[in-house]
Write a structure and sequence with these properties.
five-stranded mixed β-sheet; two-stranded antiparallel ribbon; 18 helices; 2 domains
Length: 369
């Protein structure tokens, strides 16, 4: 197949349209529940009040904003693929933004900016504080301001909006890989998102991974929980073909989310039993480096240790638990850290797509009863 053949084939997978829409029209779509900005996403975006104010300032000054990308669902509703923070900011300033519990978010109060210092303490419309409210003319100006809206039509390939979401929200975006995946999962299968979020709060799991507040803020706990679900029983030969492990995890997540036969209950049991066992047996040292000379754990959390120990125990958890306490988990971890093949796979410069096809099967074998 030639390059042009590939271009022709792929370009037919995305059917799109575009409109210039006023903020007033977008506001009406939002209040009529005809556009879904996914309030759950708000926890993943971290714009400051000043960043939000600068967006309102840009609208007032007539500075062009990037287009809003939406995907048209089969029911006709628009899913916001890119532009959620911009729309959320506008709706919050106007006092109509609702959170995931369908409760109104506290309206935005603006801050002073370099070009418009008088924005300090300004509100959209507060009858009790007219001096700090926008005038009727200023509100109308914002409502009549137009944004470009790019629409991925429902006839497009199902994967298109997720591919677009990743591309538009990667690079300069403050979102972590898992925050991106969480947004995609919410769009695809809210039930699975809530299930995964609940798993990540399991006490045994939390005690084993011991993450920093920053890592938790960036949803690294959900990243690890998802990795467990994706890789616990997978044929590791699949991983060898993955050029980008994060893309591989996202694709597998969507595969699971779309599979009505995937047993969430069974996988949740494997997850909880694995980490309850590891927490009781080893505790917070589970995924730290073990020094066989000094006979102790040291350092912080290591992803390679998680990939071997958690996935190895998870793969064999039923037989381990049935051993009646006769399984020497510490001895197996010591053997892992004395294994030359393992050690040479986890050094610097070893990518996950090269590391995991080797150390995941090693863990499964090493933690076999």
């Amino acid at each position: 197949m030639t390059l042009q053949d590939e271009i022709d084939m792929r370009s037919t997978e995305v059917k799109s349209d575009s409109y210039a829409m006023s903020i007033g029209e977008l506001t009406n779509l939002y209040t009529d529940a005809e556009i879904d900005i996914h309030p759950e996403f708000q926890r993943f975006y971290r714009w400051t009040p000043l960043q939000k104010t600068k967006l309102i300032e840009s609208i007032l000054l007539g500075i062009p904003l990037p287009p809003i990308f939406v995907s048209q669902r089969k029911d006709g509703i628009w899913d916001v693929v890119d532009g959620l923070q911009r729309l959320s900011t506008i709706f919050q300033f106007m006092g109509i933004l609702a959170n995931e519990e369908h409760k109104k978010v506290e309206p935005l109060i603006l801050e002073e900016t370099k070009y418009l210092p008088s924005l300090q303490n300004k509100k959209w419309d507060d009858p009790d504080d007219p001096d700090n409210s926008f005038t009727s003319a200023q509100r109308l100006f914002i409502k009549r301001s137009k944004l470009d809206v790019k629409i991925i039509l429902k006839e497009s390939d199902e994967k298109s909006k997720y591919e677009l979401f990743q591309r538009l929200n990667t690079g300069g975006s403050p979102l972590s890989e898992q925050e991106l995946r969480n947004c995609i999962l919410i769009m695809e299968n809210r039930k699975m998102f809530n299930w995964l979020a609940e798993l990540s709060k399991d006490e045994g799991f939390e005690q084993c991974i011991v993450l920093t507040d920053r890592a938790k803020e960036e949803q690294y706990d959900m990243d690890l929980a998802l990795r467990f679900v994706v890789f616990r029983t997978i044929d590791t030969s699949e991983v060898k073909r993955a050029k980008d492990i994060n893309e591989f995890i996202t694709d597998k997540m969507l595969e699971i989310a779309r599979n009505p036969d995937f047993d969430l209950e069974k996988e949740a049991e494997a997850f909880r039993e694995t980490f309850n066992y590891l927490n009781a047996a080893i505790g917070s040292d589970c995924f730290h480096r073990y020094d066989n000379i000094k006979q102790r754990f040291s350092g912080g959390f290591l992803l390679s240790a998680f990939e071997s120990v958690a996935l190895g125990v998870g793969y064999n958890y039923e037989s381990i638990l049935s051993s009646g306490g006769n399984f020497d988990i510490l001895g197996r971890i010591k053997r892992l850290w004395g294994n030359e093949d393992f050690l040479k796979r986890i050094g610097s410069g070893k990518t996950a797509s090269l590391r995991m096809p080797k150390i995941v099967p090693l863990g499964r074998e090493l933690f076999k009863l």
